[in-house]
Amino acid sequence: TAVGPGHSIRCAYYEHERRPVETWDVHAGLEIGVVLEGQMIRHWPGLTRRLGAGQLWLCDAMEAHGFSVPRGQAKVVVAVVWPGAVAISSLAGPFDFLGLFKIPPDRRPRIAPPSARRSVLAAGREFIKTLRHETFREQELLLRVQLLLLEVSRHSDQPATAHRDRRPEGLERILPALKLLEDGREKLVTVDHAAQACHVSRSLFTHLFRAAMGTGFADYARRRRLAQVAVELRSGRTKLSALAPRYGYVDAAHLSRTFRRYFHMTPRDYRDRAGSENRAAAIDTHRQRR
Fold first, then answer.
1. Does an H or E element contain 179, and which?
2. How much is the CA Rg of the chain, to the nearest whole Å?
3. Quick one: which of 198, 175, 194, 195 has its CA closest to 186?
4. Could you tell me which residues come within 8 angstroms of residue 24 by beta carbon, excluding any fewer than 6 positions away?
5. Which is it for strands 47-51 and 56-59: parallel, antiparallel or unpaired?
6. Are 92 and 47 in contact (CB under 8 A)?
7. Is 253 a residue whose pLDDT tops 60?
8. Longest alpha-carbon distance in the chain
9. DSSP string, 218-255
């Protein structure tokens, strides 16, 4: 289930066996994950980072990212959160949690001190406790994310700072545009169309969207379409020539060039890697381990 205004968070616990080949993904939510046991390598275009128990990673919305497991087994807990839920966090206070995800991947917070790793590990295990409950609410998982982000900000050499423009009312004003993208009935949503849906001028919409989401609407929408293409590539054998017009691209070559620019691999390579993935055991918000 994709995250959005109506479904704010997906959370899962994974036990990944050795997986030397990178698995890549992109999605509409912010991702925060914690390594509970073992080691994992996280990948971004042009960057790799090896993580051990008690360390975490952050991925921005619509940001291509991947992982591999060099040896043994890696146990991790991962939360994918709708950006709006982070932006309007009741715990944020003077902090700009969303800003932590906007820092370039090579400068995002690292959890290095052993004492900090212990607290992050404890926070990660709290997610599993919540998931094991017979019934739980999204708000409980969102609270876990907020507490973890507070911990990240505390130990980061680039703590989150206030962002005056990123306020709940600004986010509410662009919700119609976000819902238009999530609706999926129109694959190509222009800035003018989005502004019209929000009943504001193009210039005001552009300002509101960038202030609330940390990126421009055109780039966000492009990444959203590519995320949908990635889902199609993982789940079926539809030809690129058929996918291109469906998602607003002139032809297969146009789609392939754009996909490669964001994923740093061709659609064919992405599909091949997705097809070779091993199944991972997971606890998530829809299927809980007993």
1. helix 168-183
2. 19
3. 194
4. 43, 64, 65, 66, 230, 263, 265, 270, 273
5. unpaired
6. no
7. yes
8. 55
9. HHHHHHHHHHHHHHHHHH----HHHHHHHTT-SSHHHH
In CATH, what number does 9-163 get? Answer: 2.60.120.10
Average the pLDDT over each of 81-90, 135-144, 214-223 and give the range with the smallest value.
81-90
How many C-beta atoms lie closer than 10 Å to residue 203's C-beta?
A: 10
Tokens read off for 178: 């976000």
> What are the helix and strand counts (H, E) for the chain?
11, 9
Q: Where are the domains of the chain?
A: 9-163, 168-275
User: Closest by alpha carbon to 104, among 47, 154, 146, 174?
Assistant: 47
Residue with tokens 């087994």: 73
- Name the class of domain 168-275: mainly alpha
CB of 232 closer than 8 Å to CB of 242: no
Confidence of residue 186 (pLDDT cuts 50, 70, 90): low
Distance CA 37, CA 108 (A): 21
Compute CA distances 206 → 147, 195, 217, whole Å: 31, 8, 7
